Amino acid sequence: MDKEKQTKTLELTSAGKDEMNLAEFPFALLSDKGKAVKTLQFSDTITGTGGKLVARRWTITASDKFGMPTRDDEKVYVALMQITKENGCCLQFECNP
Question: What is the pTM (predicted TM-score) of this model?
């Protein structure tokens, strides 16, 4: 495998997990036509440790001044995550019930 192809494969692989998290719990609108949308809510139930059902809820609330994040904001977020990883940093978020 040549060096360029290997680099592209590495880039796609490292971004894949973060992309899936954003697909499951997005924080941005997929279009620029949603100025009236002020809140997005997503919820699901997963099987946690020991087979116990865990309810999850994700809520995004827009500000009156800036509105909801758009797909371009999400692209910037993914790029910043990639730069963070390339520099040896790891960010982890914890949920507080």
Answer: 0.57
At residue 74, the 3 state secondary structure works out as helix
Q: What's the burial of 27, exposed, middle or buried (CB within 10 Å: 0-12/13-18/19+)? A: middle
Q: Please give the Cα distance from 77 to 37 (Å, whole number).
A: 21
> Which 3 state secondary structure label does DSSP give 59?
strand
Instruction: Give the span between the Cα atoms of 77 and 22, in whole angstroms.
Output: 10
pLDDT in tens, 42-65: 899 999 999 999 999 989 888 888
CA 74 centroid distance within chain: 7
